[in-house]
Design brief:
single chain, 106 residues, alpha+beta, Surface presentation of antigens (SPOA), 4-stranded antiparallel sheet, 6 strands
């Protein structure tokens, strides 16, 4: 077992997103229903440290709510943003597309 095996990451399950005017947000209270964007309410996104890694279905068994992974996100589909924190340290910024093309041509 390596040190990486003991590394903790934040896992988030995102049901959906929405945007609304501030005045509507200020009116929210107990019992309010917020409609979420998304084509399929049963499919959720699974994120690690804010980055999508998988998709799945919500499973409710008694009082437990779980997610069954149905699809892994391909590594090529996850684009690292400049300054993203990985393991507590800032990742080096990615070169701008023009810089990357110039470096590849050199």
């Amino acid at each position: 077992m390596t040190e990486l095996d003991n590394l903790h990451v934040d896992l988030t399950v995102r049901l959906g997103t929405t945007s609304m005017p501030l005045h509507q947000l200020l009116k929210l209270g107990r019992g309010a229903i917020v409609e979420l964007d998304g084509s399929d309410a049963e499919i959720v996104d699974i994120l690690v440290n804010g980055h999508p890694i998988a998709r799945g279905n919500v499973v409710v068994t008694g009082r437990a709510i779980s997610v069954r992974v149905t699809e892994m996100v391909r590594k090529e589909a996850v684009i690292r943003k400049a300054g993203t924190r990985i393991g507590g340290a800032a990742a080096p910024p990615l070169p701008a597309p023009a810089q990357a093309a110039a470096a590849a041509a050199a």
